[in-house]
Amino acid sequence: GEAWDTGVELLYLRARYYQPETGRFITKDPWAGDLWRPRTLDAYLYVGNNPVNLVDPRGLNGEQPPHEPPIVGRSEWGALQPGEHTMYVNGCRLVSGLEEGFFDPNVRLGGYARYSQLYPYGYPETLLRDVLDTIVIHHEGNLQRYDVRIVQIRHMFGEGYSDIGYHFVVGRDGTIYEGRDIGARGAHVILMNKRKIGLLLLGDYEPGLDLGGGRRFPLDFDDERPSWDQIMSTVHLIRWLDYLYGIDRVVGHGELPDQNTSCPGERMKPYMQTFRAAAKER
After folding, report:
1. C-alpha angle with apex 49: 45 to 51, nearest 5 degrees?
2. DSSP character for 109?
């Protein structure tokens, strides 16, 4: 898809001439660019000056699919396998997974389930694109620990889930962690988990301390705003998930009906439109 033009000493990439010495095209990209991705607004750049991770064989940057972000796998961060585990805290025996358990069509419809179990006729695991349609954004809230392992332990031994409830977790340093198997129904929204991808940003982004019953103490000095690295990694991840599954919408946890929560927090709200734009939501 490329050829060296000896007449002008430039590289021709099907649509436009490219100058290797400067790393730029000499004519404008006909694609106008994306306001949420400022580098794409420079119509002369080659793949946003990121040739290590991206390619643009046609010279038309807007048509290139996103690349997969680096994701820390479950085994790398030391995840427990889904199911029943036992641990002792101050002499008390705790068992995981007692509340959620595993899916059984006769006695436990709400249990941990793969979509191949929920849609056995026509929705095999290989067609997750036909199942997943929504990304739900969450934050840790009060008592944040910024540690994906602690999130899993709290879910399994505190909430009784069979695994961490979220499918992905993003740290404040921008690290993306694999959570619950993407092919399994999550456990992060009350009675509405089917078809949804749970995405947790580590941290507490709601000002004040939750006292329960809708009451909040106005001061909580360890609250902060999402970090720039965290936001950028989340945008990257959402673009990738949209490319894989065709996401229809991105919502905050509290935007869904009957959830009674401020999650993902007041300080996350300014970024929600950016997240929606990343999924090409209209």
Report:
1. 115
2. T
Nearest residue to 16 (alpha-carbon basis) of 4, 29, 33, 31: 29
Phi, psi (deg, nearest 5) at residue 231? -65, -45
Indicate the SS3 state at residue 20.
Answer: coil
From residue 215, alpha-carbon distances to 139, 142, 282 in Å are: 18, 13, 35
Q: How far apart are CA 90 and CA 72, in angstroms?
A: 32
What domains are there in the chain, each with its CATH number?
Answer: 3-63 (no CATH), 71-278 (3.40.80.10)
What is the torsional sign of CA 101, 105, 106, 110?
positive
Q: What is the pTM of this model?
A: 0.75
Q: Are 188 and 197 a contacting pair, CB within 8 Å? A: no
3-class secondary-structure state, position 189: coil
CA distance 133 to 244: 11
Give the pLDDT means over successive 10-residue stretches in the chain (282 positions). 64 64 68 58 59 50 74 98 93 93 92 88 66 96 93 96 98 98 96 96 86 58 82 95 94 95 93 91 44
Could you give the angle at which helices 228-245 and 269-278 cross, rounded to 10 degrees? 30
d(CA 69, CA 276) in angstroms, rounded, equals 18
- 3-class secondary-structure state, position 67: coil
